[in-house]
Amino acid sequence: MFLLLAALPALFWDGPADTAPALRDAGIKQMLVPAERLASWKSVGGITVEAAALEGATKLAAPMVNYRMNEASATSAPWIMANGWKVIRKPEGRYYYDVTGKQAALAAAEAYCYGASAMIKTDTAGLKPLAEMLEFLRAIGGESLPAVADIGYMDDGSAASGEVMNLMVRDNLLFRLVPAADKNLKVNVKLGTKEYPLEDAKNPSTLAHSVRFHLTDEKRSLRVYGSQVVVGRLTASSGHARLHLINYASANRKVDGIRVRVLGQYAKHQLRIADGAGVELMDYSVEPDATEFTLPELKTYAIVDLSR
Amino acid sequence: MQFAAAAPLLGSPAGEPVYRVVTSYKPAAKPGMPGPYPGQVVRVHSENSIDAATEKVNRELVKQMLASGMKALTGDARTEDSWARFISPKDVVGIKVNCSGAPKICSSPEVVAGIAENLIAVGVPAKQIYVYERFDNQLQSVGYPKFLPEGVNIYAVETSRQSIVRYDPKTYVETSFFGEEDTRSNVARLVSETLTKIVNVPNMKEHQASGVTGCLKNIAYGNFSNVARSHSFEKTNTLSFIGTLASTEPVRSRVVLNIMDGLRGVWHAGPFSEMAKFRYFPKQLMFGTDPVAMDHKLIEAIEQKRESEGAVSIFERSMSHVGRDNSNPNTNHFIREPGHVEFASKLGLGVFDASRIKLKVIEL
What residue of B is the nearest CA neighbor of A172? Predict the structure, then answer.
């Protein structure tokens, strides 16, 4: 079922068939519709449709940044609404977003980045950004490399554990779920142990900081400098790495440059960036233990392929 | 590479910060700081330099103050000779202004224009002069171009806030103060890649976090990215961060002269000047190559003003004086760290010992 969802996120549209001109104008070429509208949409030319239902799928939060300007906080760091941890916890799940405007493009990027099977319900304003992002993702294709992880995380399935995963994703602390400590990973984390007491999980930020402390920044496979709203995901296999970079504030503003450090030496690179014609990596540098570069602008989503 | 420390950077939030300085720039044979006149400060005061009621600056008098100050610092009879000790026609010169309180208080355009005119007079082409600051909106609010000689460049490092592309990715100070994700503070590319000399033009201001913001802070926080993280909490890390940044090459070698613009001043709630009641008019310029000695004199001036206003010392560390409402001169957002000036002296940036500081005072 849902062939459209096999590799890419897809638009879920519950509007009637007479909305087709708006969809075509936006560049939508395929989508999912409720079963009861399938017949009427089948007769519409230029848009491939399949039937789908939101029921049974898990709703994901609208990806965004909440700057919490009026909220007392221990730090001024913006609060990122990200869903990566949910997909890591349940990669086989079916998901949907209900988002408006430019958030539709961000949702598609996030779903693609984590390989989530996701439907995106949006409004008319979201159609064009979504269509453009889907076109970008389609051109990249569905290459699937294993995720790079520095941390083995033993998830107990609790809400507290989920929030720790959320903080690790947002802080670019790369982890994968393990049933037991994996000595091939740099750090293993289990809540309720001496290093990571359950009490600390009441403040997930503190616990994520503790994980980072044990790992040390020098051993982190990915560092992102210059922005608090960019989340990265790194996958790699035998001399090739793919770095996904998402700007969670993209609905409001672009990021004017980030410096990225990836452990390992990669002499070659290819940047593919959504809505970023002419943007190229700057100050590319291969050091003895790491590769660094500057991405001068990030609107929503970029993929950097690195190879030796 | 300079490495200040090899210990892990991600220390306990409560611990003292550990810095890793990464730079490929070597110190000059004679670094600009403390320069040829360690421990020497010249103060030129002129009652008519600015009208306190209208805030109109007497441009001709400012020119005279600049000439007197420079000659007194170097001992030369001719103004051109005094400038030529620091600047040659081949230099590409940055005038580091301070616009953090602009347009109410900033490096006065009359002072900055006077400096540019002196640079041109010793043979530096106007196109090799850059008046620069980190934030474009603050810089633009001053309106320097109409005062400056034609051809002088106006340059902002961050054309949009937090943009990193005009910072040098290979020259930075790395530290973690409280577990922030971005642990690097990079020097401006203009400083590392273009300028050969820098004339530093701070103001006379109290600063809520660092105690004062004079030469050292304008050099440090005005030339590096991602510095506000040092004062995210009441107890700040300005004590050691300011001197560490200022002593990083090539900054230390290229800042060859400090001219502190004290026509206007701020004695509380700085570095901004949102409350006019804390602004005052010292009507002076200070000159020197030693930023520590000059900032020591700034501390004295701010302390004297605060005492006359009945405000607590900037050295007061009681939490009872920390609070959000800084419209009260005895309440401040942070525990101030005026000790950053003495700390910088221990990094070799200048003379802090009051008994070794020689002050020349000129009245015009």
Answer: B181
Q: How far apart are CA A87 and CA A93, in angstroms?
A: 7
The CATH code belonging to domain A222-307 is 2.60.40.1180
Q: Does A226 touch chain B (CB under 8 A)?
A: yes
Task: Provide the residue ranges of all domains of chain A, joining segments of one domain with +.
Answer: 3-140, 151-219, 222-307
CB pairs under 8 A between A and B: 59
For chain B, how many structural domains are there in total? 1
Q: From the list B164, B180, B232, which residue is nearest A257 (CB)?
A: B164
Verify whether the Cβ–Cβ distance A294 to B169 is below 8 Å: yes
Mean pLDDT for all residues in chain B: 95
Least confident span in B124-133, B268-277, B289-298:
B268-277
**pLDDT tens for residues B237-249?**
999 999 999 999 9
Measured in angstroms, the CA of B21 and the nearest CA of chain A are apart by 15
- Kindly tell me if the per-residue pLDDT of A5 is higher than 90: no
Which of A225, A282, A294 minimises the CB distance to B182? A225
Assess if residue B224 is contained within a domain. yes
End-to-end CA distance of chain A: 39
Q: What is the extent of the structural domain holding B279?
A: 39-363
**How far is B36 from chain A, CA to nearest CA, in Å?**
36
- Strands B284-288 and B358-363 turn out to be unpaired
Mean pLDDT of chain A: 93
